[in-house]
Amino acid sequence: MAKPLVTVIIAAFNSENKINKTLEALLNQTYKNIEIIVVDDGSEDKTKEVVKEFFKKNKKIKLLEQHRQGPGAAKNLAAKKAKGKIFVFVDSDEYPRKDYIEKLTKPLITKKGETAIGAWYVANPKSVWARCRFKDSGEIRKHAVKSGVFRTISKKDFNKIGGFDPKKGYSDDQTGKTLKRIRVDSAIFDHDVDSSLSELFKKRKWIGSSIISNPKPRKFWIKLILGFVFLMIFVNSLFFSRRLSLILIIIALLPLLYQTIKKIIFYKDIRLLIAYPAYSIVCSIGMLMGFLKPEYKK
């Protein structure tokens, strides 16, 4: 029985330093009947040039371009041009292992599921910034069963759910909850994430930009209310009591100090003494900037 054509879709933005490794990993898959569509989402670096060089060597790779509209819109564009009966979505900083596509698409081919999701490892677990973000940067990371996120789906079902919703921004892949979803933990990719402080800032800005367009957990609203109350008390204390302001600053810093010490002990990495506070501050500023000035208005 011939294996169906799988279209691998990549939304890329300023990915010149990573997408070459992604494409190499995809061309080295055990599942051979694939086409790869890269959509350049208005990159300002040499992402397009890198993809074009790969195209010269392998015609399985195609390049589409659009003005900056976000990954959801980019993936929808690729889906319209795709010839495959099954879609697999890969980010430009993800490096699928050799049998990733074969294992990920198996539930769809055998009719056991309508969508599927794999698992991943941090590609650079010893990075100080990855250690700042993750409780354990070396462990396998599995998607929650109820999240609705998927990485493979049939073209028919993708069209049925209306594709991705670009208005959701960071969470545009949280869809398809009505479809039967399989988690394939043996379908693994390495995620080259949080390589630098600049990358962390941009990601948090993106998350902040789209946070209003997504449903919020109770913890989000609790933190927001407590943060607002604390800010009002602090601003008020500046005019009436500098001593109270100092006390409030110390109280606010205690959780940060606790988390910093906790991470230093777990990782045995003294770099975190400076890195974790810097990470926390940069991420907070990025979220705030994205919230105040959304990157995508449509």
Task: Summarize the structure in words.
The protein has 298 residues and is an alpha/beta fold. The chain folds into two domains: 6-191, Spore Coat Polysaccharide Biosynthesis Protein SpsA, Chain A (Alpha-Beta Complex), CATH 3.90.550.10; 197-292, no CATH class. It has ten helices and nine strands. The chain has helices at 19-27, 47-57, 71-81, 100-109, 128-133, 155-160, 197-209, 218-240, 242-267, 272-292; strands at residues 6-12, 34-41, 61-66, 86-89, 94-96, 115-122, 141-142, 152-154, 181-191. Strands 1, 2, 3, 4, 5, 6, 7, 8 and 9 form a nine-stranded mixed sheet that branches. β1 (6-12), α1 (19-27) and β2 (34-41) form a beta-alpha-beta unit. α7 packs parallel to α10. The radius of gyration is 21 Å and the shape is elongated. The mean pLDDT is 87.
Structural key phrases:
single chain; 298 residues; alpha/beta; Spore Coat Polysaccharide Biosynthesis Protein SpsA, Chain A; 2 domains; nine-stranded mixed sheet; 10 helices; elongated
Count of β-strands: 9
- Which range does the strand content fall in? 15-25%
Query: What name does the CATH topology of the largest domain carry?
Result: Spore Coat Polysaccharide Biosynthesis Protein SpsA, Chain A
The CATH superfamily name of the largest domain is: Spore Coat Polysaccharide Biosynthesis Protein SpsA, Chain A
Mean pLDDT: 87
Q: Give helix % range.
A: 40-55%
